[in-house]
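Project standup — Tuesday

K.O.: blocked on the structure for the chain from last sprint. Re-posting the sequence here as requested.
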Amino acid sequence: MSSIQPGGHLAIAKNKSVGKVLVLHAWWGLNKTIKNYCDQLAKEGFTVYAPDLYHGKLTVEIETAEIYSNELNLEQARMDLDNAIELLQDQTLHSDEGISVIGFSLGAYLALDLSNNRRNNISKVVVYYGTGPDDYTHARASYLGHFAEFDVFEPQKNVEELESALKKSNRPYSFFQYPDTGHWFCEPDRVDAYNPEAATLAWERTLEFLRQP
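H.V.: unblocked you, prediction finished:
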């Protein structure tokens, strides 16, 4: 039985769980925005866990966040995610049930990477303004992407390359671009970028995707 790592956030549905979701934070660290997102998913009936991939580090400054993300060791992150998957599997009776993973920005890359490395566990992937590896031939997941119209951190070229990779690998996917938005448009603590209308629409689309059989 896996234990919650220090700083990780577990949100459990009050009634019977309708699915298991792993949420991966952006380069700020595991902040209140991500924890609140997990809690909202739990209110919708999901069992949710967000690991702290920075092990306690947290920032609101772009310069510091960039340093933290550059310092992140991919192999260590993958081990943390392996532990997170085990923890989620322990929370429900059906341990072999597929897990959905949602990633924000930095977390989007890790979510996409995870769908390749843990293909037997990951059934659905949702990415918020982030892209990842260029080969999904070994993945078994379906994908949903939320992208900004004007994004200096994730150029349209990157989104097109991800779309091409998923097509080439014959993976089902749906991508949406949100007009007049920039990076972090779904994170309310980023007051310079937050777009409540787009965030609500992305949330509704995410719930619909997660609930699909």
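K.O.: great, moving the ticket to review. The CA atoms of residues 11 and 39 lie 6 Å apart. The chain has a mean pLDDT of 94.
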